[in-house]
Amino acid sequence: MKLHYLHKNLEKSIKSTYHEDISFLKLWHYHPESELVYIVQGEGTLYAGDFIGNFKKNDIFFLGSNLPHMFESASNNSSKELCSAYVLHISPAYFEQLPLDQIEFSLLRNILTLSKQGIHFKTNRPNIVFETFKKMMNENLAFNSLCLLQLFLQLQETSSSSPLSNIVYQTADLNSDKRLQSTLQFIMQNFQSDISLDNAASKVGMNKTAFCRYFRHKTGKSFISYLNNIRVQYACKLLSDQQPEKTVSEACYLSGFNSLSYFHRIFKKTTGYAPSQFKKELPSMITAS
């Protein structure tokens, strides 16, 4: 997947849109605007930073400024149901004008900090949140500004939340560092294949030692740790898929691991579960969340 920079060029600090099509836009991209998404209908795979996981109806995601992401609709949509979502794009200027250092804005300040990694909200009151999104599908900026604050409060009061990516992407790095862009693209395009540290270093014209220092400095992780995390995230997605259902062995090799024993070790280290245990307990984990 090639990483694209998209500047929304918002005429107002909040842009509200309703998307409906046979599938969502399959484009791995980032932009300075934060993005708040309510999945009305449809399912598929969300890529956000180094996170790979499923999305479905009533899921809500808050993707912070410059977090690379893509919503890939499921390819097994035999009924040809339309995918639809409410999407809010919020310019950095909107948040910059708020007194976020004041105690009454501590909730929003915390949400913005977490949004750098992306946040998945699961609300137990979807109708309430849905109606607020729906009300914001207009051009009244003053009204939408108040609704947005109300929306964040509703999400805090009615939802459980979890971070998506393990990496916080810096604006300057993604906008100006072509080497970092090239490296991230290389990983996302090839993580299911047998790629190595040598491959990645040579791709950007560096020796292994220099590349290791560079990559850790930019991401806070070693290259192998970053790669393994993406592979485990993808394996979790495969193990949670029902159509078609995957075995642990299939999830291992389809995720890019070439050793079942190594896959078991890394999977448990990353998730706290053995792959078979994760697959077995997934229904209860989903119910609990």
TrEMBL record:
Gene3D superfamilies: Homeodomain-like, Jelly Rolls. This is AraC family transcriptional regulator. Keywords: DNA-binding, Transcription, Transcription regulation. PANTHER family: ARAC-FAMILY TRANSCRIPTIONAL REGULATOR (PTHR43280), TRANSCRIPTIONAL REGULATOR MTLR (PTHR43280:SF27). InterPro entries: AraC-bd, Homeodomain-like_sf, HTH_AraC, HTH_AraC-typ_CS, RmlC-like_jellyroll, RmlC_Cupin_sf. It comes from the Bacteria. It holds the Pfam family HTH_18.
